[in-house]
Amino acid sequence: MTGARGAVPALMTAGQRQLWLAHQLAPDSAALNVVLAVRVRGELAAAPLARALTALVARHELLRSRFVTGADGLPVREPRTGYAPEPDERRVEDGEDDLFGLARRVGQERLDPAREVFRLVVLRHRHDDTVLVLVAHHLVSDATSQVLLLRDLLDGYAAARDGRPAPPRPRPVPWDAYVRAEQERAGSARGRLARAHWPQVCAGVPAAGLPSARRGAARGPAAGATARRLLPPDTAGRLAAVSASAGVTPFAWLLAAFQAALYRSGGAAHALVGVPATTRWLPGTREAVGYLIDTFPVVSRFDAGTSFRAAARAAHSGLGTGMRYLGCPVELPDEARLFRTIITLIRADRLPVPGLLDGDTEYAGLRLSLLDVPQQEGQTDLAVEIVQSGGGFAVMLRHDTAVSEASTIERLGDTLLRLVEASLDDPGARIAGVPLTDPGELAFLLSLGAGS
Predict the structure, then answer these.
(1) Are residues 397 and 247 in contact, defined by beta-carbon separation less than 8 angstroms?
(2) Domain ranges of the chain
(3) Condensation domain: from which residue to which, for each copy (predicted)?
(4) Second CATH level (architecture) for the domain 189-349+376-450
(5) Residue-wise pLDDT tens digits, 95-126
(6) Mean pLDDT of all residues in the chain?
(7) HSE (side-chain half, CA atoms, 13 Å) at 228
């Protein structure tokens, strides 16, 4: 769809332009849907919820935007005045208790950013048991933004229900101002250094991946799946101690373990992964809803003698360089190819609804339970999301099934867990020398071939 005649175009970030292009390549896919599904126990009246949604869309301008193709073929963001969508109320039939499955299917309903970029679906199970599914296109949201939307929606609901004003919040930065600041940074001395630095880092370095991946495979809608792994409960404490002793962050240690898992699974010894990082440290962005992410490359180099400690220090250095240039977006000639594999960390204690990722929590007089439905599957060849909460670390490996078999990603997840544990047991161990089969399992397998 092309822009409306007379509409005043607004600005877009470099990251939004990349996402718009990704949408054009697969317009029927839901891989760019960012989904937050929450089960709400307690009465959730329809009229106050509708008023809260109106206030939510009024507060966050990107929810009122549409993204179209301009006359020159380039993307255009068009803000809309007076746009006030209604909640999509759906009655759950008696006997239908698979609320998780229903929420997952809602999250897989595609969004057309030329028409709508945000949808609130309300699954009414019983009068005191409802599921809210917030679905946003990645053009206007990220993981933190989704939780901000939930917080503001429930704040508005409680205010409308109780007949009082919503709690005062700082106004989010206007999106055009955020984009202009990005453009100013790109034109600054730091931006010029970034443009000179990143092509040198990436020159001749292949994108990290698995040898069994079917490169160039035809992609289709919903061609994704997720493998989940939980790190042992004591990992957080051990990781904090071991990484501190090596002078690196816990995320740098986990990043190195992931790079090592790719290498030990047959990947290249010299390769790069993309690391999406938040730009919410910039003025006015704490309350902003949008795609506030820059992705930068981190390169790994392995040989027969590389230890976990050395790999973690290299990853730490790469992250430090990326953070130094954060806010000056990486725009590379073949960025889509380079960032086929990405990894990120989400810390639950930094999200605006406390306890949401830890299990049941109370907010606005309602009992909330996260329904962690699969989402963003197939957006890239492989996207690893590590979530740190009070319960420890959960690892989601989202992949494109047109590129990798599910069994391959499952094995990669097992290898990652094995290497994390081995690295914490002996940080100085050679990565190439770590057996990938548990000693007890190996003894059992050998016994099968020994005969009776």
Answers:
(1) no
(2) 189-349+376-450
(3) 12-445
(4) 2-Layer Sandwich (3.30)
(5) 777 999 999 999 999 999 999 999 999 999 98
(6) 91
(7) 8
